[in-house]
């Protein structure tokens, strides 16, 4: 099975790093899927996006990301987010409540938190 090294990092901490079989992320140019051996690329992550990493052990790492960059090199993938939360760390009830009560600036962030939890299953 082909694999690649992936790092998911936010400004304040490293959320996850390890070996993966694929990565998908939402960029300003659209959704991108990365498999091992992908050509080098640099993409800007959208505000309120979701990143999904399929690990080599069959697991799934899902995170709500808020801005930043995705970099693909010959050695792997780096996701450098301005802010990010792993789906397992998100209080989905609080996120849904924030989605209803949020102004436009916070609505994308709250929606990403809800989608990350929903897509982690």
What does this protein look like?
- By secondary structure, this protein is α+β, with helices and mostly antiparallel strands.
- Helices cover 21% and strands 48% of the residues.
- Strand 2 and strand 3 (30-34) form a beta hairpin.
- The protein is globular and about 45 Å long.
- The relative contact order is 0.20.
Q: Which helices and strands, and how do they pair?
A:
Blueprint: E1 4-10, E2 14-27, E3 30-34, E4 41-44, E5 49-55, E6 60-65, E7 68-73, E8 76-81, E9 84-86, H1 92-101, H2 104-119
Number of helices: 2
Q: Proportion of β residues? A: over 45%
Shape: globular
Number of strands: 9
Helix content: 10-25%
Mean pLDDT: 92
Poorly predicted ranges:
none
Distance between the termini: 23 Å
Alpha carbon gyration radius: 14 Å
Secondary-structure content class: alpha+beta
Order of helices and strands: EEEEEEEEEHH
Biggest beta-sheet profile: 9 strands, mixed
Keywords:
globular; ATP_synth_F1_dsu/esu_N; alpha+beta; 9 strands; 121 residues; nine-stranded mixed sheet; CF(1)
What's this, in brief?
The chain has 121 residues and is α+β, with helices and mostly antiparallel strands.
């Amino acid at each position: 099975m082909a694999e690649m090294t992936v790092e998911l990092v936010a400004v304040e901490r490293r959320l996850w790093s390890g070996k993966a079989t694929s990565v998908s992320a939402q960029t300003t140019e659209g959704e991108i899927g990365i498999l091992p051996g992908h050509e080098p690329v640099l993409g800007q992550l959208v505000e309120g996006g979701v990143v999904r990493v399929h690990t080599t052990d069959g697991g799934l790492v899902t995170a709500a990301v808020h801005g930043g960059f995705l970099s693909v090199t010959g050695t792997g993938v780096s996701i450098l987010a301005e802010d990010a939360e792993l789906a397992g760390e998100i209080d989905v009830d609080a996120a849904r409540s924030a989605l209803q009560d949020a102004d436009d600036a916070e609505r994308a962030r709250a929606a990403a938190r809800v989608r990350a939890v929903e897509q982690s299953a």
